[in-house]
Design goal:
The structure holds 2 protein chains of 2 kinds. Chain A is of the alpha/beta class. Helix content of chain A is about 30%, strand content about 25%. Chain B has 2 domains: about 180 residues, no CATH class; about 190 residues, no CATH class. Chain B has 13 helices and 12 strands. Classes of the chains: A alpha/beta, B alpha+beta. Chains A and B meet through helix 2 and helix 3 of A and helix 1, helix 10, helix 11 and helix 13 of B.
C-alpha cells in the first residue's frame, strides 16, 4: 500500500471553540490508483488533503506513506517528504510571478538534495509532457489559465513523486481547459502515477477511477467509477486553449 | 537551496520593486556615508592637532609662572605672573644635568611701524638657543647671536606673516622697523611654522631677550622658560628636578604653593587627543543614529515583503522548502540591501570627506578601520533588522500561507 491511514482525526482550536474537521478517517490507496475525494464545503476534504499531503500534523491517528510512519516526523522532515514524494497542483496555480515557466518548474529541485545536474533538461522534459515545450520562457502573466495550470502540473512532476495531489485543479478554469487538465491527469495515471484529486464536482470526480465521499469529517462512501469520463489523452497537445 | 540559487532568488525579488529597494538602500547609504565622513573629520582633526603639537619641538618642558599670592582662588592668566626671571633659566641650564638647552622667553604685543605701514604683532624676546629648543629656524638671513644678547642690540628676525603684512612680500632683510619708536634692523626671516598649539609664531617678531626686557618693556619677568631635555625617558626626572630647584630658589617650602607650573608635550598631547577622540565619538555616534534609522527602514520593508509574499512562502514550503531555506532567502535579501547600500554609502562617505577637506579646508583622514567598521556595521544592521522578518516568514505554516488572500 502506498497510503495507509487509520482513524485519522484533526481538531482545530482549543477549548469551547474547537472544530472537529476529521472524525476518524481510515483508507488505503494503492500505487497507480486515481482517487477523487469528494465532498461539499466543510466536509473535511481539504483537511484530509492537507494531512495526506504532509502539509499538517493530524491530531491523532496513523498515517503511513510509502512505508514511512509520518507521525514521528517534524516540520522539516515533512518538508523533505513533500519534496521527494508529493507533487502539488492547486486551484490558484500558485506560480511565481515574473518568473519563467522553466524557472517555476525547477523550483522543487532547488530545495531537493544533490540533484543540481541537468535540472533544466528535467524541467524541459516535464514541460514537454504537458505540451508546453514552446512556452518554456513565458512568464505566468503571458500564459492562459489552462497553460498556467499545466506549468503547475509540470512543476509537480519534476521530482518524479509517488503521488500527485490536485486540490480543485479545474476550479479556476473554463470547461474546455478543465477537460484538458483532467486529460493530462488521466494520461499521467495511465503511465503509472498515483493521483489524488480533491473536488466538489461530480463531473470532475468521475474522471478518476475511484471516488471517496466525505461528509462531516467521515467517509460515507467509497466506490469504483463505473461510467468513467474519458478525455482524449493527447487532445491537449494539438489544441491551444485561450 | 544552494547559495547561488538563493542569491538569484533574492535579486529577482528585490528587482521586482526597484524603487522600494532603492529607497530602502538609500537609508543605509546615508547612514554609512555619514559615519565614514564624520569619523574621517574627527580623525583628521586628531591627526592635525597631534602633528601641530609635536611640531612645537620634541622633549620640551614648559615652565610658566603662576600667580598664587593675594586673593584666594583668583589666578591670573598665564604669562601675567611675575615670578620667573632670567636667572632662573640660567640656573636650570647650569645645575640640572638632564637638561640640554634652555630658552627663556619674554613676549608682549605692540605696534610695529615700517615706513607708512603699521601692524600690531607679538614681540618675542628670545636667545640664540630658541631655534634649537623649538625646532624653529631662520629661513634666510641670520638669527639672534649671543653677542646681540650681551650688547642688547636692536636687531630683529621677523615671521612670515609679518613679512606679508608689513612688507607686502618684499625682502625685509636690512630694512629698519620701529618698535615702540625704537628702530630695529631686520637681520633674518623665520621659516613658515603654521599655527602651533595656542599661538601663531608666524605673526611674531623675534628680538634679543635683554633688548626686549630692558630697552622696550622695562620688565625683568619671563613669560615662559622652555626646557629641552636630553632624553625623552628623563622628562619626569627633569621636571621634578626643575621643580625642586625653582622651589628652593623662590624660597617656597610647600610644593602645592609653587608660583610656577611645569607642563610637557605629553600632557598637552593627551589632553588634546582626548578632546578630539570625544569629538570623533560624538560625530560618529550621531551618524550611527542615521544608520540605525536606515536599518529600521530595512526591517519595515522586509516585513511588508513577507506579508505580500505569504502565498509564495506557502508554495515554497509545500514543494519542500525547509524553515532554514525561507529564513536564508529573506535574510539574504536584507543583507543585499544593507551591504549594497553600505558599499555605495562608503563610496559617498569617502567622496564626501574629500570634498569637505577641499572646500572646507578641514583635514580629513579616511582610515581602513573606519571603512571596515562601517562595512561590518552595515552587514550587522542587515542581519539584525532582517532576522525578525525572516524568522516570521520561516515560521508560517504552509497551509495558512497558501490560503492567504
Amino acid at each position: 500500500m502506498l497510503i495507509e491511514v487509520g482513524s485519522l482525526t484533526k481538531t482545530y482550536g482549543i477549548g469551547a471553540g474547537t472544530v472537529q474537521a476529521l472524525r476518524g478517517v481510515s483508507l488505503n490507496i494503492a500505487k497507480g490508483e486515481f482517487v477523487a475525494i469528494m465532498g461539499s464545503s466543510g466536509s473535511g476534504k481539504s483537511t484530509l488533503m492537507h494531512l495526506l499531503g504532509c502539509l499538517d500534523h493530524p491530531t491523532s491517528g496513523l498515517y503511513k506513506l510509502d512505508e514511512i510512519n509520518l507521525e514521528e516526523l517534524d516540520d522539516d522532515e515533512l518538508a523533505e517528504i513533500r519534496n521527494e514524494k508529493i507533487g502539488f497542483v492547486f486551484q490558484q496555480f500558485n506560480l511565481l510571478s515574473r518568473t519563467s515557466a522553466l524557472e517555476n518548474v525547477i523550483l522543487p529541485l532547488t530545495y531537493g538534495k544533490g540533484r543540481t545536474q541537468n535540472i533544466y533538461e528535467l524541467a524541459a522534459k516535464a514541460l514537454n509532457a504537458v505540451g508546453l515545450q514552446d512556452r518554456m520562457n513565458h512568464r505566468p502573466n503571458e500564459l492562459s489559465g489552462g497553460e498556467q495550470q499545466r506549468v503547475a502540473i509540470a512543476r509537480a512532476l519534476i521530482n518524479d513523486p509517488a503521488i500527485i495531489m490536485a486540490d480543485e485543479p479545474t476550479g479556476a478554469l473554463d470547461t474546455k481547459s478543465g477537460d484538458e487538465i483532467m486529460g493530462i491527469f488521466q494520461q499521467l495515471n495511465s503511465q503509472g502515477k498515483t493521483i489524488i484529486l480533491i473536488t466538489h464536482e461530480r463531473y470532475i470526480a468521475e474522471h478518476a477511477k475511484r471516488i471517496i465521499f466525505l461528509q462531516d469529517g467521515k467517509i460515507i462512501g467509497d466506490e469504483i467509477v463505473s461510467n468513467r469520463k474519458t478525455t482524449n489523452a493527447n487532445s491537449h497537445q494539438g489544441s491551444e486553449s485561450s | 537551496m544552494s547559495l547561488r540559487q538563493s542569491l538569484k532568488t533574492a535579486l529577482r525579488a528585490l528587482s521586482i520593486n526597484k524603487m522600494r529597494s532603492g529607497l530602502t538602500m538609500l537609508g543605509i547609504m546615508i547612514g554609512v556615508g555619514a559615519v565614514v565622513a564624520m569619523i574621517s573629520i574627527g580623525t583628521g582633526a586628531s591627526v592635525s592637532v597631534t602633528s601641530r603639537i609635536q611640531s612645537l619641538g620634541a622633549n620640551l618642558l614648559m615652565v610658566t609662572p603662576e600667580f598664587t599670592g593675594g586673593f584666594a582662588g583668583a589666578r591670573q592668566a598665564g604669562g601675567m605672573g611675575t615670578t620667573l626671571v632670567y636667572e632662573d633659566a640660567v640656573a636650570i641650564a647650569k645645575e640640572i644635568s638632564t637638561v640640554k638647552k634652555v630658552s627663556p622667553e619674554f613676549s608682549s604685543s605692540t605696534q610695529v611701524v615700517y615706513g607708512n605701514q603699521n601692524v600690531n604683532t607679538s614681540i618675542q624676546g628670545v636667545i640664540t638657543d630658541y631655534q634649537d629648543v623649538h625646532n624653529f629656524h631662520v629661513a634666510f638671513g641670520e638669527f639672534i647671536r649671543s653677542e646681540d644678547e650681551k650688547m642688547q642690540s636692536r636687531v630683529a628676525v621677523v615671521g612670515q606673516t609679518v613679512v606679508t603684512n608689513l612688507f607686502a612680500g618684499e625682502d625685509p632683510v636690512g630694512k629698519t622697523i620701529k618698535i615702540k619708536n625704537v628702530p630695529f634692523r631686520i637681520i633674518g626671516v623665520m621659516e613658515l611654522k603654521g599655527q602651533s598649539g595656542f599661538q601663531n609664531l608666524d605673526d611674531a617678531i623675534f628680538i634679543p631677550l635683554p633688548t626686549a626686557q630692558k630697552r622696550l618693556f622695562g620688565s625683568n619677568n619671563l613669560r615662559m622658560i622652555s626646557v629641552q631635555v636630553k632624553n625623552e625617558e628623563e622628562m619626569d626626572l627633569a621636571s621634578s628636578q626643575i621643580s625642586s630647584l625653582l622651589l628652593s630658589r623662590h624660597k617656597i617650602s610647600d610644593p602645592s604653593k609653587a608660583d610656577f607650573e611645569i607642563r610637557n608635550q605629553a600632557d598637552i598631547l593627551s589632553t588634546m587627543s582626548q578632546v578630539t577622540g570625544t569629538l570623533t565619538l560624538l560625530l560618529g555616534g550621531i551618524a550611527a543614529i542615521s544608520l540605525l534609522v536606515g536599518g529600521i527602514g530595512i526591517m519595515n520593508i522586509m516585513l511588508v515583503s513577507v506579508t505580500e509574499r505569504t502565498r509564495e512562502i506557502g508554495l515554497r514550503k509545500a514543494v519542500g522548502a525547509k524553515r532554514k531555506d525561507i529564513l536564508t532567502q529573506f535574510l539574504i535579501e536584507s543583507l543585499i540591501l544593507s551591504l549594497l547600500g553600505g558599499i555605495i554609502g562608503l563610496f559617498l562617505g569617502v567622496v564626501g570627506s574629500f570634498i569637505i577637506s577641499k572646500i572646507g579646508e578641514w583635514p580629513t583622514v579616511v582610515t581602513l578601520n573606519s571603512i571596515l567598521l562601517s562595512f561590518l556595521f552595515s552587514a550587522a544592521v542587515g542581519i539584525f533588522f532582517g532576522i525578525y522578518p525572516a524568522r516570521k516568514a520561516s515560521l508560517l505554516s504552509p497551509i495558512d500561507a497558501l490560503r492567504f488572500e
